[in-house]
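Hi all, posting the design record for the shared folder.

TITLE: backbone redesign
STEP: 1 of 1
STRUCTURE INPUT:
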């Protein structure tokens, strides 16, 4: 009809873009492109950029009492490591942290099991989480000192409070989000009780569980350091928090930053070596996350 009317359809000519070889479907990535595709490389680049900014800002202020340079901080870090003070303080903090973290996880697991099996348990967990989760753990330190005295028991008590509620809340939410299809599959195979939880609910809800464990670790770590700033003054001993407080009183600001850097480095190691390894071997391998 268009030809009979004396008109022609417009001709569209596709030409390859400039610099692109016609017929090229794929090409080999360069070394830098392959390296940048690695998440660990990108994280290292970010850390190096932050380190450069730290060093530049420290040199710009030129006041080590306010903001020491990264080189001064690293020098103080190595001195305290060689003297054995910093490793001893870090290990003292980690021992208390692991004790409170493990106790909080066990209690969160018991509360979650009760919550998914009984209505009363679910109501109890939701009520206690709403009441106590917004309460800062450090606010309980004066009561902990009255109840448990000057010892690690007080620190473990507030660490349990920091870990218990985020782990329990995330685990319970993950269990409730498990689809009815998976639940029916488990029941069709005759799974009941703990076997049903272990083989159906935990694998399906593991992304939420792992997120709760990460949040609980972060809360516990920062709560411990903050508590040691107070508790160390009371007992005359402590971990990294007491190390930071002690050097601040002595105006050893590079050592203060060395203590803070140690806290950061431990957090990076736990996140990228422990939690990331667990995530890679579980939720990523199972296809539960991208």
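Okay, here is what came back for every position:
SEQUENCE:
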């Amino acid at each position: 009809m268009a030809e009979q009317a004396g008109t022609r359809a417009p001709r569209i000519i596709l030409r390859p873009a400039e610099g692109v070889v016609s017929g090229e479907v794929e090409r080999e990535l360069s070394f830098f492109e392959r390296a940048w595709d690695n998440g660990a490389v990108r994280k290292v680049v970010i850390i190096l950029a932050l380190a450069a900014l730290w060093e530049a800002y420290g040199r710009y202020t030129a006041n080590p009492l306010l903001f020491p340079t990264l080189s001064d901080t690293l020098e103080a870090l190595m001195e305290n490591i060689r003297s054995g003070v910093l490793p001893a303080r870090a290990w003292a903090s980690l021992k208390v942290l692991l004790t409170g973290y493990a106790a909080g996880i066990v209690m969160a697991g018991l509360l979650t099991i009760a919550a998914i099996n009984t209505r009363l348990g679910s109501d109890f967990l939701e009520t206690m989480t709403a009441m106590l989760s917004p309460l800062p753990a450090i606010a309980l330190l004066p009561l902990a000192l009255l109840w448990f005295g000057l010892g690690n028991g007080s620190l473990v008590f507030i660490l349990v409070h920091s870990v218990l509620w985020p782990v329990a809340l995330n685990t319970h939410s993950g269990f409730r989000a498990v689809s009815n299809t998976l639940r029916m599959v488990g029941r069709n195979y005759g799974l009941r009780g703990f076997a049903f939880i272990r083989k159906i609910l935990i694998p399906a809800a593991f992304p939420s569980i792992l997120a709760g464990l990460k949040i609980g670790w972060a809360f516990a770590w920062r709560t411990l350091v903050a508590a040691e700033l107070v508790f160390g003054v009371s007992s005359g001993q402590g971990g990294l928090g007491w190390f930071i407080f002690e050097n601040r009183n002595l105006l050893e600001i590079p050592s203060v930053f060395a203590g803070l850097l140690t806290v950061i480095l431990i957090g990076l190691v736990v996140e990228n070596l422990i939690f990331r390894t667990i995530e890679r071997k579980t939720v990523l391998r199972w296809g539960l996350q991208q």
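COMMENT: Confidence is low (pLDDT under 50) at residues 1-5.
Let me know if anyone wants the other runs.
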